[in-house]
């Protein structure tokens, strides 16, 4: 049963991709990258090799599903903000319209007074009709106050008109943003459902393959990989994250889990660095955009190491070419060599 194990592994991976395509959920086979092999021991049975290949495919689908969920949640937040902006803009419109009506009444009163009084509303009129210099000064002062009030009323009215127009435009813009966010959210939800269905199809395939595993196969999956390299991290935060991750050796891999006792690959990184006071996004692809890029020759303990493009797997570098990771379904958090399909590293603690 152990002849040509590598060919069996590749065959298992191709079979797993075929299952996804046959599921008919809209995920093209070309979008699925063959997983990096987990360096199974030479004594691994064909069943274990095929299971690991299929589990690697499932891990990719899980990360893609999580990314779709993250994108959908972000767009839902955009939609909620746009709806909030609509409500706020409508309140501004109502307030501005009320001010506009109030100052319209005042402006109309001044217009009526000017029409009825005619030329009497002038300093010359005050001079000609006054009985004394003091009378003239009093009347002029009163006219100045009226003119000032009139100008203030006109300015307030103009401001209210402009405010109403600006608020109406804000409401229109918010409505357009809300509609766009709603349309995009629906597309992302469709994508999320597609990827969820693809993952479920792969899970069903794994269940079938798991029935072929021997007791020795299951013991191999529980192997935690031996001792970690005794190399210090360059910062206290990185060392804390390493210590937390290593404390989880032997904990089970579960799709979508972020601890405290089960993890997927990016969930283990998020959990470990959160304990060190460093916030990370949810998925491997998103985590690949954080921190500072690090060349492979400059790797230090605590660096996040990524596999696939876009990244579908992430581990934490320990030194000596090793990492701690939550590999795939049926496996446990373990120490292992860096995998194939290495795609770069990021330093998130300094």
From TrEMBL:
GO biological processes: proteolysis
Q: Which UniProt keywords apply?
A: Coiled coil, Hydrolase, Protease, Thiol protease
InterPro entries assigned: NLP_P60_dom (IPR000064), Papain-like_cys_pep_sf (IPR038765), PG_Endopeptidase_C40 (IPR051794)
Pfam families xrefs: NLPC_P60
Residues annotated as coiled-coil are: 44-106, 164-209
Region listing for Disordered, in residue ranges: 215-234
Say yes or no: keyword Flavoprotein present. Answer: no
Task: Give GO terms: molecular function aspect only.
Answer: cysteine-type peptidase activity
Does Hydrolase show up as a keyword for this record? yes
Domain NlpC/P60, residue spans? 235-350
Q: Which domain of life is it from?
A: Bacteria
The UniProt entry's sequence similarity note says: Belongs to the peptidase C40 family.
Q: What is this protein called?
A: NlpC/P60 family protein
Annotated organism of origin:
Amycolatopsis alkalitolerans
The organism that produces this protein has a lineage beginning with: Bacteria, Bacillati, Actinomycetota, Actinomycetes, Pseudonocardiales
